[in-house]
Amino acid sequence: MYAFQFERPSSVADASRLAGNSAARVLAGGQTLLASMKLRLASPETLVDLGAIGDLSGIRREGNAIVIGAMTRHAEVASNAEVNAAIPGLADLAGGIGDRQVRALGTLGGSVANNDPAACYPSAVLGLGATVHTTKRKIAADDFFQGMFATALEEGELITAVSFPIPKRAAYMKFRQPASRFALIGVFVAQTDAGARVAVTGGGNGVFRHAGLEQALSQSFTPDAAKGVKIDASDLASDLHASAAYRANLISVMTQRAVAKALG
């Protein structure tokens, strides 16, 4: 490690001011940032730790949505009674992230802001059509994710919460990369009043919705409907872990299993 300035603000306003410094990085759960610093892939002059800001944590229901604070830990989402009752697929996703240590420290906001192309949470945010609340505005999930590690967040803009609309049904299934426990392919499906939404993570450049699967499942929310959709491998990643063709097959299989899980 190396020398840096450590700041631990107690308010969102102070955190936002400190984060506006281009040489600063925000510390949420630290599961990615600290590892990057150890490997010298990131070298911020200032770390802004959000851990002392109570307003950024917590889970509540507002109307037909579950609102989760940005600093809420994965383990808290997984065990929360409100989430388990309203969106059990989201609680299940949170309970399957990493290992126990990661779930105890990692945060919803940190994962969403980092937007790792194989992370689980972005698929829930996109699959449920969630809204990302920041210190400046509200951003629809469809506008938030912009490619590998890229989001709509501006410099100094912090996520404060994510609002998840409660669907009719939803579920998440992932095929784990055994070493990292990230998703080799993860699929979040949701049946809503407006139709089905299907979000895929681990496929390549970032989380994305699959129009063909959504169309088929909007007509018939069944595993057989998903099975009938051909998955194009041309835009999927191919690496030492899996070929593009294998990932395409996993998208189909994980979608079928997710639908079956959502139907109970």
TrEMBL record:
Keywords: FAD, Flavoprotein, Oxidoreductase. Gene3D superfamilies: 3.30.465.10, CO dehydrogenase flavoprotein, C-terminal domain, Uridine Diphospho-n-acetylenolpyruvylglucosamine Reductase, domain 2. InterPro entries: CO_DH_flav_C, CO_DH_flav_C_dom_sf, Diverse_Substr_Oxidored, FAD-bd_PCMH, FAD-bd_PCMH-like_sf, FAD-bd_PCMH_sub1, FAD-bd_PCMH_sub2, Mopterin_DH_FAD-bd. Residues 1-169 form the FAD-binding PCMH-type domain. SUPFAM superfamilies: CO dehydrogenase flavoprotein C-terminal domain-like, FAD-binding/transporter-associated domain-like. Pfam families: FAD_binding_5. PANTHER family: XANTHINE DEHYDROGENASE SUBUNIT C-RELATED (PTHR42659:SF2). This is Xanthine dehydrogenase family protein subunit M. It comes from Ramlibacter aquaticus. The lineage of its organism: Bacteria, Pseudomonadati, Pseudomonadota, Betaproteobacteria, Burkholderiales.
